[in-house]
Amino acid sequence: MSLSRRAFLLAVPVGVAGCATNSPPAPPTPIVATPPQRFPTPAPEVKALYEGMKDGDWELPAVDLTLVDPRYLRQKVTYSSPYPVGTIVVDTPQHFLYLVQENETALRYGIGVGREGFAWSGEAQIARKAAWPFWYPPVEMQARDEKARRWAGGMPGGLDNPLGARALYLYQDGRDTLYRIHGTAEARTIGRNVSSGCIRMINHDVIDLSARVPVGTNVVVLEVQTGES
Predict the structure, then answer these.
(1) Per the domain annotation, does 74 fall within a domain?
(2) Do the beta carbons of residue 154 and residue 136 sit within 8 Å?
């Protein structure tokens, strides 16, 4: 299955973009400030998965789980899949990432995905993994964003880095697809279409996923059904 991507005329703010896009910018859309939606505090055993933690040289703060729909918090679920145990399956329309396990189960994580028009599908492999990775803004982004130009040589890993605590680099046939599974500190963006094509996870979740999968893991991104014949 070949990897595909579609690009529409959408501007991608540097604050949420972790990957490259070749689309030209569109006129900015006015932003109306609205208070964030709040959800009930989850059970203690779930909350414990997202407490503050030390990861290498970084102190990762606890996640405010009232900003995340409980559906998108890490959990083991029943999952029937044609793919082998250990495969990562990404369901972009539903904003779920599944790590296939034995006995028709999977670990399910919530994700944020690319805005409409940056959707992609196909199969790829994790060619490398990085903890607190550097971020290199795409040339197109540098051309239109002063902050991106400031980091043209690469932004060091850290709590403000758009790639978060981990990045899993997706390759196909030995070539970089420019897509990543990566972390984010912006928990409220999980379950939304917010970035320029990459798959973003809560930092705690991408740390957990990265520890479970080796380099070479197959990643299947399900095709988005558009209703077209």
Answers:
(1) yes
(2) yes
Residue with tokens 């998108």: 72
Beta bridge partners of 201: 183
> Which residues participate in catalysis according to the annotation?
182, 198
Q: Is residue 229 part of a domain?
A: no
Q: Is the pLDDT confidence value at 133 over 90? A: yes
Domains contained in the chain, number = 1
Long-range pairs, 145-148, Cβ under 8 A, ≥24: 145/13, 145/14, 147/14, 148/14
Instruction: Return the half-sphere exposure (C-beta side, CA atoms, 13 A cut-off) of residue 89.
Output: 20
Sequence-ordered strand ranges (E) for the chain: 4-5, 53-55, 58-60, 75-78, 88-91, 96-101, 105-110, 113-114, 120-131, 166-172, 175-184, 193-195, 199-202, 218-221
Tell me, yes or no, whether 228 lies in a domain: no
Lowest mean pLDDT across 53-62, 70-79, 115-124, 171-180? 115-124
